[in-house]
Design brief:
This protein is about 65% helix and about 10% strand. The chain is mainly α. Helix 1 packs across helix 4 and helix 2 crosses helix 3. The chain contains four helices and two strands. It has a two-stranded antiparallel ribbon with strand order 1-2.
Length: about 120
């Protein structure tokens, strides 16, 4: 089942899970990104990025540590906590399961369309 065929609340939850997974994956690789840089890396608005990041911070999945980025500016390193690493693994499993189901459904649709074309192209 793809997000188009899901009830709206389920589709929103799947989209939110995918966005949270994306944030966790990027921060694991690049913990010193600013929110603006993270927003650009994710292709999300700064507001949505801020919301997602603070939700992860509030749940204890990510913690922020201050460090000096330059002589004049403090910045943060966003580090995944052990709970954050477990959540990333759980989100990855669910995301992969959804994508595999979508892939299988897509294969069925493609096969049906090919059969339809083959029937219609016969003289």
């Amino acid at each position: 089942m793809n997000t188009l065929s899901m009830p709206p609340t389920v589709a929103r939850a799947a989209d939110t899970d995918a966005a949270r997974l994306q944030v966790l994956r990027v921060l694991e690789k690049q913990p010193t990104l600013s929110q603006r840089e993270l927003s650009a890396a994710l292709g999300l608005s700064l507001g949505k990025t801020h919301y997602l990041l603070h939700a992860l911070l509030d749940r204890g999945l990510v913690k922020a540590r201050n460090f000096r980025r330059s002589d004049r500016k403090l910045a943060y390193a966003y580090l995944l906590t052990p709970a954050g690493l477990r959540e990333k693994l759980s989100l990855t499993r669910r995301f992969l399961g959804r994508k595999e189901a979508e892939f299988e459904q897509l294969q069925v649709t493609i096969a049906a369309l090919r059969a339809e074309l083959a029937r219609e192209e016969r003289p």
